[in-house]
Amino acid sequence: MRLGFHYHVPAVLEGAQIRMPGYQGRFVDAFADHCSEVVCFLHSPRLDEEAQMDSVIKSPNVRLVHLGPHCSVPRRLLAARQLARVMRTQHRDLDVLLIRGPSPLLPILARAASPVPTVLLLVGDVLAMIDNLPQPRWRKKAIRWFWKWNCWEQNRIARSSLTFVNNRRLFEELQPYVPCLVETRTTTLNAADFFVRDDTCLKPPFRLLYTGRMDRGKGLLEMVEAVAALIAEGENVVLDLVGPPEKGDPVLQELAALAAKRNISERIRYHGYMSLQELFNYYKQADIYVIASKTSEGFPRTIWEAMAHSLPVVATGVGSIPQFVGEAAIIVKPNDCNALSGTISAVLHDGQRRREMIRKGRELAASVTLEKQVASMVRAVQDWLATDRAVSKGTPTKGLAPEMPARVIRPFRDG
């Protein structure tokens, strides 16, 4: 199978090496293990993104087609005709195009790739995040109108595509009118990444950890307030923050100002962007993983990473987090700093519950490794392509439905 792939995360070609962020590189390499060729249609990074191109693609059957610079969305849309021409000149040898969304160019590239079949992988709800953008009201309104159009086009394409989603609410919204819909889990974890330990929180200071984008929608300010409350109660905790700054979001400055106001500046430590292996070292040194997202999530891959490194997880109940983690994590209400600090305190002092969370979380993460997830997705794509071609030829399609482990990927058909 010759697979095309597009997402808005950039990549760069240096000599014979393709470099991109580790979380995307692992995903591409995993698909390359199952394909004769993977052609990546990606943007080139901005100057501030070049340090994030930290992973070299290992598979020799991956090819990069540049779609121009990863500039602002309006500029990319102004270049839409040129980008569509790039897709049309390169797609002829593809069997299928996989587009990860939401992404600004998803509708444009899907149309340009026709008649190549399109598969969608939808990993979040961008409309739910707009209210938290640090933008004036008029600009938020314009952004909302664009993404409403984009999501409408995305969902229209989904009706005639195989569509994977890692978001339970989105799955339920699409299920009535998307006949080929599959719920999946997205992760960066290989089986070799797991770090086994029975317990954490064995000696102070106890290290709380958040990893991901420095986005106010992730509840960073609420985490600082929770740390301040814990310290006021006599707890010896620090909060480590690891991840890239969100362009245009001054939350890091606000976070530093809030920490200074609460007199806990030395307890809040921002470490910047780290490569995947460096990031994994932070998980190994941490005691509790905390994510306090305020709005909808697909499912943060960082939760799987934390669980794989034997960390108890405290998370807010947004998106698919409650449905996906079960009893392997403790769920709190978003925007509730008191509940967040109280739950963290409970994990610190209840060793039996903490050890049970660690065990269950590691078992859950092991059930959704990248090897398992991608193998199941590839089988689903191959079966869907076979079914689609059989239908186009007027032949019976009985027995061509995907056969996948229910716990990893669950196929549903239109009722």
Task: Explain what you see.
This protein is an alpha/beta fold and 415 residues long. The protein folds into 2 domains: 2-187 and 370-412, Rossmann fold; 191-366, Glycogen Phosphorylase B (Rossmann fold, 3-Layer(aba) Sandwich), CATH 3.40.50. 40% of the residues lie in helices and 19% in strands. Strand 2 and strand 3 (17-20) form a beta hairpin. Helix 7 (220-232) runs parallel beside helix 8 (251-261). The model is unreliable at 390-415 (pLDDT under 50).
Short description:
This protein is an alpha/beta fold. 40% of the residues lie in helices and 19% in strands. The chain has an eight-stranded mixed β-sheet, sandwiched between helices.
Strands, helices and their partners?
Blueprint: E1 2-6, E2 12-14, E3 17-20, H1 22-32, E4 37-44, E5 55-56, E6 62-69, H2 73-78, H3 80-90, E7 96-101, H4 106-113, E8 118-122, H5 137-158, E9 162-165, H6 168-174, E10 181-183, E11 206-211, H7 220-232, E12 237-242, H8 251-261, E13 268-270, H9 276-285, E14 288-291, H10 301-308, E15 313-316, H11 321-325, E16 330-332, H12 337-349, H13 351-366, H14 370-392, E17 410-412
Parallel strand pairs: 1-4, 1-7, 4-6, 7-8, 8-9, 9-10, 11-12, 11-14, 12-13, 14-15, 15-16
Antiparallel strand pairs: 2-3, 3-5, 10-17
Helix pairs in contact: 1-14, 3-4, 7-8, 7-12, 10-13
Class per helix and strand makeup: alpha/beta
Largest beta sheet: strand ordering: 6-4-1-7-8-9-10-17
- What's the CATH first level of the largest domain? Alpha Beta
N- and C-termini, Cα separation: 30 Å
